[in-house]
Specification:
- This protein is of the alpha/beta class.
- 27% of the residues lie in helices and 35% in strands.
- It contains four helices and nine strands, in the order ββααβαββββαββ.
- The strands form three sheets. Strands 4-3-7-8-9 form a five-stranded parallel sheet, with helices on both faces. A two-stranded antiparallel sheet has the order 1-2. Strands 5-6 form a two-stranded antiparallel sheet.
- Strand 1 and strand 2 form a beta hairpin.
- Helix 2 (30-46) crosses helix 3 (58-70).
- The two termini are 21 Å apart.
Length: 173
């Protein structure tokens, strides 16, 4: 199925000049969600990932089923203060300020081969921060997977030679 037909485009949200790409119709369609999980799960196998790491909240929606499909562990990345055990933190720059992400320090084993999954690739800042945490823990980022990529923002260039999978592309729309 063409997943693009399952994504709603909402002009003017959250502000004028923006077209919001709403992936929730994929979640409401069991076949579309299964296809998404399978395609990302297959990519995890292709890059020989042994763990999927994804940020809350929308990254969880696709990272967990993909990890189940690939039969590999899933590690959540959350906003500060949401994880109960010892965490590692990465602070990164946003357009207007800073943000931070955390994951449990002992969940990612050194030498792990990590696929980072998120719903949308726009600027790439969140995934760059996650990749930095992964590398600091002695693991390797072997790929990035997204449901949607905004091609005109050219964020995939930030990932160098690391393989990137995007299931749906939008260019200048």
């Amino acid at each position: 199925m063409d997943l693009k037909t399952r994504i709603a485009s909402i002009p003017g949200f959250p502000k004028e000049g923006i077209i919001f790409r709403d992936i929730t119709p994929i979640l409401a369609d069991p076949e579309a969600l299964a296809q998404t999980a399978t395609e990302i799960g297959n990519f995890a196998k292709e890059v020989n990932a042994d763990v999927i790491v994804a940020p809350e909240a929308r990254g969880f929606m696709f990272g967990i089923p993909a990890a189940m499909d690939a039969k590999i562990p899933f590690i959540p990345v959350r906003k500060p203060g949401k994880l109960p055990r010892r965490t590692i933190t990465e602070t990164y720059t946003l357009e207007y300020g800073e943000d931070s992400l955390q994951m449990h320090a002992e969940d990612l084993k050194p030498g792990s081969r990590v696929l980072i999954v998120d719903d949308l690739l726009a600027t790439g800042g969140t995934c760059e921060a996650i990749a930095s945490m992964v590398r600091k823990e002695g693991s390797e980022v072997v790929g990035f997977a997204f449901v949607v990529e905004l091609d005109d923002l050219k964020a995939r260039a930030k990932f160098g030679d690391t393989p990137v999978l995007s299931l749906v592309h939008y260019e200048g729309e």
